[in-house]
Amino acid sequence: MLTNNLRSAITLSMPLPDPQIRIMTAEDIPLLSEFARGHVNEPDYFQTSFDEQRDGKRAVFMAFVDGVLAGYVHYNRHPKYQPFRSLNIPEIQDLYVASVFRRQGIGEALVRACEAQAQRETCSDIGIGVGVGSEFGAAQRLYMRLGYLPDGAGVVFDRDPVSVGEVRPVDDRLCLMVVKSL
Length: 182
Hints:
Layout: H1 4-11, E1 20-23, H2 29-35, H3 45-54, E2 58-65, E3 68-76, H4 82-86, E4 91-97, H5 106-120, E5 125-131, H6 137-145, E6 149-157, E7 160-161, E8 174-181
Parallel strand pairs: 4-5
Antiparallel strand pairs: 1-2, 2-3, 3-4, 5-8, 6-7, 6-8
Helix pairs in contact: 2-3
């Protein structure tokens, strides 16, 4: 539920307070599951994410504005994309910001939290897969503005390279992989 201050800021299109970013805890699983309803369709998605976080495979960062969950992102230390795995490049995945909080710097703050994590782990690069469809236009622009560049391998489908002449659906599995030097 939005507080009156937050509702007023959104209604007036005023800048929101800086988001507070923290790592997911076990207690956050129900909150995240409710928050991402409609965006995430796997029933145990956040439990699995928490288990992988506990095992050191990933970290899930959550952004709060005025105590309200605004978005989350996964920092995956073991990405499926082979070039990233081979080069020890962590991948930012599943960046999601609630529509009421978009265009307020939440997505950027979550990406920067992942970049800071990669720097703490002495990674020289970090990567992201971004959908090529128009519904991912805001994400494409954000990543380019933050200095991410295509990795040069062309598009992938479900993190596997797409060959010339191959036909694939344009959905969230058809991506361009982008990287940034840290």
